[in-house]
Amino acid sequence: MLDEPDDIHPLFHGAPKSTAFRKLRKRLVQAVREAIETYGMVRPGDRWLVCLSGGKDSYTLLAVLTELKWRGLLPVDLLACNLDQGQPGFPATVLPEFLTRMGVPHRIEYQDTYSVVTSKIAPGGTMCSLCSRLRRGNLYRIAREEGCSTVVLGHHRDDILETFFMNLFHGGRLASMPPKLVNEDGDLFLCRPLAFVPEADCDRFARGMNYPIIPCDLCGSQEGLQRAQVKKLLDEWESRSPGRRQVMFRALMNVRPSHLADPGIFDFLGLALGRPGTDHENARQLRLPD
User: Fold this and answer.
1) pLDDT digits (tens, 9 = 90+) for 22-58
2) Which pLDDT tens digit goes with each residue over 211-230?
3) Is residue 191 classed as helix, strand or coil in its secondary structure?
4) Is 131 exposed, middle or buried (0-12, 13-18, 19+ CB in 10 A)?
5) How far apart are CA 180 and CA 195, in angstroms?
6) 277 or 83: which carries more pLDDT confidence?
7) Which candidate, 22, 23, 20, 42, places its Cα nearest to that of 33?
8) How far apart are CA 88 and CA 140, in angstroms?
9) d(Cα 233, Cα 168) in Å, to the nearest integer?
10) How far apart are CA 79 and CA 220, in angstroms?
């Protein structure tokens, strides 16, 4: 990667010169490229709506995708989009000024979903689910209006793991955020190119670049959320066994339906003696590398 001002996008001007930051930047680019290739996210010539909340994750997403496009490695058009949801005290000028200064094509949309959420959720109730649905509906609408085929979100590896355990503990199902899916109407892709990126890397990168991070004061300030509880649990596991998160994420990519208990995805009724079984082979494949 070149670091002369004329050879990089303005989003990377002023990047720290340390070896550690260069390695971090390289690691992020490689992880995003791997996710894009693994899940077939790119259709050359498409237009992507890159959702920008102003948090560390979405800044990292925008910067890495822009880096890939700048290097000719991402043959799509990028349109950054911020949905201003009308939260009291939201610094509405920060993102448009930042994106204009960086020369990033963008659209800023104002929709007062905050009032809708607070009018329908009882005091002390969890706002995340309704807020997310309203935000997603508006982003899909904007994508259609802008001719985008793909809505791109900044969920990272840790978000995906936390969602898995929330579904496991509270939803009674094995499910998470897929790196790529098609929306219910069947007309838009939804992609998460940060699927292989740890949250800590997003934090180090965005802070190292000194991007103007905007906190979420709507849901981020609520106490006792299930996601916060799961995050704390994963943090404790990681502190006792470094690398545990990565092992668990690999498990999401190494599913063995015959070793679960869902008759809807494996034909247990069709099992019969005298036919080759799968028990030994799957048991062997489930062993983790040293």
Assistant:
1) 999 999 999 999 999 999 999 999 999 999 999 999 9
2) 999 976 555 444 447 888 99
3) strand
4) buried
5) 10
6) 83
7) 42
8) 24
9) 13
10) 26
Tokens, residue 274: 């005298």
Q: In sequence order, which residues have a C-beta less than 8 Å from that of residue 80 and are 6 or more positions away?
A: 50, 52, 62, 99, 104, 105, 106, 107
DSSP H or E run through 47: strand 47-51
- Scanning the chain, the segments in alpha helix (DSSP H) are 19-38, 56-70, 94-102, 113-120, 128-145, 157-166, 199-208, 226-240, 244-252, 279-285
Can you tell me which residue has the tokens 């809708």? 116
Structure tokens at 109: 């949309």
Largest Cα–Cα distance in the chain? 70
Query: At a CB cut-off of 8 Å and minimum separation 6, what does 75 contact?
Result: 42, 44, 45
DSSP 168: I
Kindly report the pTM of this predicted structure: 0.88
CA distances from 155 to 61, 214, 228, 279 (A): 9, 16, 15, 35
